[in-house]
Amino acid sequence: MQYLKKLFDPHLLANLVGCLLLLLPSLAGSQRGNAPLFQKREESSSGKEKESPAKARHLIGSTLIGQFDRAALADRASAVPGVRALAQYNIKVYRLTYQTTGVGGEKVTASGALLVPVADKPLPLLSYQHGTIRRSDEQRAPSYYRPGSEIWSAVSVLASNGYLVTAPDYLGYGASKALPHPYEHAPTLASASLDMLRAAREFCAREKIGLNDRNFLLGYSEGGFATMALHKLIEEKHADEFTVTASAPGAGAYHKTAFARYIMNSDQKLNFINTYVWVLGTYNQVYALNRPLSRYFNEPWAARIQANLFDEINPLPKQLFTAAFRTGILNGTDTRMLVAFRDNDVYDWKPKAPVALFHGTADDYVPFFNSQDAYEAMLARGATQVQLRPIKGGNHFTSAAEYTLGAFLFFSAYRDAIGN
Fold first, then answer.
1. When comparing pLDDT for 230 and 23, which is higher?
2. Most buried of the four, 193, 243, 293, 377, by CB within 10 Å?
3. Which residue would you say has higher pLDDT here, 297 or 24?
């Protein structure tokens, strides 16, 4: 289990992401503000969560988590030279609750974090989709805003640089933690993220926080998959509400159908096998297949997975999965599961806004072909502003720092070109 703990530890990702900041160019900083390092969670004067205005359609309520001085934000990556130049503004962090939809279309109260720079100018929106969080790590979801989470370090510094950051918890965390998280389910990852953006706009209108017309999308691993799904959803169905300025999905499993065939054909031990088991479990329920686990897995692994999803299991696919299931995927006869995979394929569409696809070429967790396939499919559909950014020799975890650096610089070019 030790290797699994490393693979799923968000502390590792947060530390890697923080270390990228030493490479960033110097930026002019504002004068240090007078906000305290940390203020305890506050509520409205009535002692209750501040309610949204009657005209709000998505925002339910908001709670101020704290106000953070830009120097304190820089200190979160104090070992990295140059970080102080990036942190320009103090920020306020809020927990928002908002209405979204569940896997069956039902209304769900969800939550997320909103990071607001204290700046006297209209701000660009940046939607940040977090990576995999195990259920046992619930408090690493964005709305808790705890040390060790992805949003605590580098994402907070991005906010301090002048981005108003929305960070949805997704279904299954925060306010909706009573629900199972629909892991790698593109429709609800996208809708929860979009509804968080809507709630953030309503919050900003209520609090008279100015926004400009720039909207950026960022996320790595499951967050990269969610970012791609969100971008696709906005441009195909909600272009009247939001115009994506640029998106930078990193190392996402965009081509689920090809990924499934890759796994079923593999003769190698797969370090990510438990997360793929989680994906199968999600699709088995969300798409109402409702098959017993013995349909997918040989014993004793089926019983182990039933008891604990993250128990140590056989990492060799040809021994873990039943021959019938493997055959059904490879020869196309398991049509119901293949429909579920295709419903979560988010690689083959034509984005209008600029897209930079970042991915480590040695990624054995989410293979590089996911980004390569997306790049080629988008070009084939006539996309003219898509880039493939291979991170040579990088695996799923060592690539995180270079990804975040590259994404920041990619966004900066579009933000500065339009006018800061």
1. 230
2. 193
3. 297
Which tens digits make up the pLDDT trace of 358-396? 999 999 999 999 999 999 999 999 999 999 999 999 999
CA distances from 292 to 105, 153, 280, 321 (A): 25, 41, 12, 13
CATH code for position 158: 3.40.50.1820
User: Is the CB of residue 32 less than 8 Å from the CB of residue 68?
Assistant: no
Pairing of strands 107-117, 91-101: antiparallel
HSE, CB side, 13 Å, CA atoms: give it for residue 195.
26
Whether residues 95 and 230 share a domain: the answer is: yes
What residues have CB less than 8 Å from 403, skipping those under 6 apart? 220, 248, 250, 251, 358, 391
Phi and psi at 302, nearest 5°, equal -60, -45
The Cα 159–Cα 68 span in angstroms is 11
Burial of 120 (0-12, 13-18, 19+ CB in 10 A): exposed
> Could you tell me if 239 and 280 lie in one domain?
no
Residues 323 and 194 in one domain: no
| Res 20 pLDDT > 70 | no
Query: Per residue in 24-52, pLDDT tens?
Result: 332 323 333 333 322 333 333 333 555 54
Q: In what side-by-side order are the strands of the sheet with 107-117?
A: 50-51, 59-68, 91-101, 107-117, 164-168, 123-129, 211-220, 246-250, 355-360, 386-391
User: Which of 343, 369, 399 corresponds to the end of one domain?
Assistant: 343
- 277 with 400, same domain: the answer is no
Q: What is d(CA 224, CA 127) in angstroms, rounded to the nearest whole number? A: 11
Residues 274 and 358 in one domain: no
Of 18-32, 78-92, 221-235, 373-387, the one with minimum mean pLDDT is: 18-32
Please name which of 168, 164, 150 lies closest in space to residue 17, comparing C-alpha atoms: 150
Q: How far apart are CA 111 and CA 89, in angstroms?
A: 25
Mean pLDDT value across the chain: 87
Residues paired with residue 50 on neighbouring β-strands, in sequence order: 62
Of 333, 320, 205, the C-alpha closest to 270 is 320
Domain interval for residue 248: 13-255+347-418
Q: Which residues of 52-67 are buried (b: 16+ CB within 10 A; e: fewer)?
A: beeebebbbbbbbbbb
| Total structural domains within the chain | 2
- Decide: 214 and 415 in contact? Cβ < 8 Å: yes
- Partners of residue 63 on adjacent β-strands: 95
User: What's the predicted TM-score (pTM) here?
Assistant: 0.87
- Indicate the pairing of strand 211-220 with strand 123-129: parallel
